[in-house]
Amino acid sequence: MKQSVLITGAAGFFGQHLTQYLSSHAHVIAGVRQPIDGIGETQVLGDLVSLPDLNATLERVDVVVHCAARAHVLREEVDDPLPLFMAVNRDATLHLAQQAAAAKVKRFIFLSSIGVNGNQTESTPFRADDVPAPHSPYAMSKLAAETELAKISAVTGMEIVILRPALIIGPRPVGNLAVLARMISKGVPLPFALASENRRSLVKAATLADLIRVCLTHPNAPGTPLLVADKTPMSTRGILEMLAVDTGQTLRLVPVPIPLLRFALRTIGYKKMDQQLFGNLEVDITATSARLNWAPPPAEYTR
Q1: Which one-letter DSSP state was computed for residue 129?
Q2: Which helix (H) or strand (E) holds 292?
Q3: In degrees to the nearest 10, what's the CA dihedral of 54, 59, 60, 65?
């Protein structure tokens, strides 16, 4: 008999990928905010920030995979967004987890972020045993949720699996990747022909979905956070080339010196974008692979 798995955020970018992928491995209930067609059996959960009563739904669930979150906010409309991130990514998560534990859900898989480790790497990749160093309200809220989930597990015995993925990439991306994909689709020349020296770890949506499949049942999955990324980091130019392939568009690149681009971005106040485009962020998944006897699927199976 297949496990019953509730996926929150099932209508989102990664949630849709995960719902489709896990449907052949488990009985999937797609948790959505409002009615939606085309993604199998759905359950309207409403706005999780309102802390809804979900006991009736959770009573028939073996595993919760919590993907719903506040993320990819390109233009904040408030001066201090941290309370908004905490309300969604910490408070709503804890309410859901508490209800899941009360309903005897066996395992709760939480999609955190590599941002909990930090926003850049220098000489060594991020590792699972690094001291957390979140630099954004989003990452801070994810770390806060991780901490409180561990407490719930200690009190209730519900198994908690924490995943810290690198930036997720796939068809129909979101956030900054979506902006770049739109520019590529419109044939806009991009000044990144020389951006081939930095190293940034990514995780394909299919790779992350496959790891979650393993985490549904693997006895070693609960415990300390699991980092996840594809095997080989990519440069900014490589990421753009992948986006062009995924969107079926022709990539137009212009060779502009990187120091000039970095200076321009910092001058107009885009220091964060400067780091994201030209800095390094590498992830070491050795501990994850050893603990779960798992490795990212070959690239031809995850495009």
Answers
A1: T
A2: helix 286-292
A3: 60
Do 168 and 13 touch, CB atoms closer than 8 A? yes
CA distances from 251 to 183, 193, 279 (A): 9, 10, 22
DSSP state string for 226-259: EEE--SS-B-HHHHHHHHHHHHT----B----HH
Residue 57 CA to residue 45 CA, distance in Å, equals: 9
CA separation for the pair 193, 186 (Å, rounded): 17
* Of residues 225, 192, 196, 198, the one with CA closest to residue 211: 225
Task: Report the run of H or E that residue 15 belongs to, with start and end.
Answer: helix 13-22
Mean pLDDT over all residues of the chain? 91
Structure tokens at 211: 């790891």
Q: Strands 4-8 and 27-32: what pairing?
A: parallel
Q: What pTM value is reported for the model?
A: 0.92
**HEC-encoded secondary structure of 101-121:** HHCCCCEEEEECCHHHCCCCC
CA distances from 293 to 96, 214, 235, 296 (A): 30, 9, 28, 11
Query: What is the mean predicted confidence (pLDDT) over 200-221?
Result: 96
CA–CA gap between residue 175 and residue 303 (Å, rounded)? 19
Cβ atoms within 10 Å of 165's Cβ, excluding its own: 24
> Where in the sequence numbering do the catalytic residues fall?
138
Instruction: State how far the Cα of 234 lies from the Cα of 166, in Å rounded to an integer.
Output: 12
Determine the number of helices (DSSP H) and then strands (DSSP E) in the chain: 11, 9
Question: CA end-to-end span of the chain, whole Å?
Answer: 30
* Confidence grade of residue 245 (pLDDT, cut at 50, 70, 90): confident
Q: What is the mean pLDDT of residues 217-239?
A: 95
Contact in structure between 218 and 292 (CB atoms under 8 Å): yes
- CA–CA–CA angle 160, 118, 161 (5° rounding): 10
